[in-house]
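Narrative summary of target 7.
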Amino acid sequence: MGNKRKDDADEGAKEGSKKRKVAPSMIKNKVKRSIVYAKLKHEKKVEKRKKAKAREVAEKRALELGEEPPARKIPRTIENTREFDETVCKPDDDELFVGIDADEFSPLFKREYTSKILITTSRFHSTRGPAFIAELLSVIPNAHFYKRGTYELKKIVEYARNKDFTSIIVVHTNRREPDALVIIGLPDGPTAHFKLSRLVLRKDIKKHGNPTTHYPELVLNNFTTRLGHRIGRMIASLFPQDPNFVGRRVVTFHNQRDFIFFRHHRYIFETKEIKESSSKTKTEKDEKSSSKSKTVKDKKSSQENVIVRLQCFAGVWSSFYVEIDQFATWNL
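Modeled conformation, tokenized:
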């Protein structure tokens, strides 16, 4: 009797161990771990395909019966699960427009004067810093670079005010990489500090173009909150407000999850011939006797179509992120 009970217990333990799925991370053997992981991945794909097929069948049945198809599940993302922000600007916000007319950038947007930018570095800049500054000089029109030397930032601000500069950009580097930007609005501020990450320069991009001297078109996307709207106006104040559309040059700042993605490109219009084939079929003479149909040879006709493509330069399609770190009004 005792031996039978032990045998039954051993069989039950074996069945339980077979039913239990071991996680791949718990397997120490690398080869066995990769095999188990591949099996689990294949099982998930099979289950996903079965669910998709069942959903398609249910939709077809509902359409045949004239009923509404079952509602599809909405994927859970960061954007649709974000809490509502009360500071989002609305088109009919009168207080926002009053603030725009009275802020520090209103004379520039009214074209009372043009933007003039002074670019400098921190006291200890790296070898990659000048390459990034050269990119800024090619992106921002009417920008001038001055070496920092041993001057303090207050003296640089006084010099920029006397020379009628509208903004100062300070490039900070750490471990031979530019890691921060400080933008100072003149004469009364404000000042913003941005963090840089994953910077890719123009020379690192394959088949890049060379930027021209035309004033670029500026695109600011998703600066919807009060703070974002103010930062967008601060970024726009760095560029002239009369773009030259002949150059077809565009500078884009896209805000997403408090990261500002930078893009610089040129759009090009091209005419390309598209060949279309038109086939004509002859009807059957006798439906009962003949089952073959004769076809007329395809006639190829060429048509000209206008195609728009993008040419990248100056860090375009790179991973250049700007994270909003600090923003404050600054006075001397």
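DSSP finds seven helices and ten strands in the chain.
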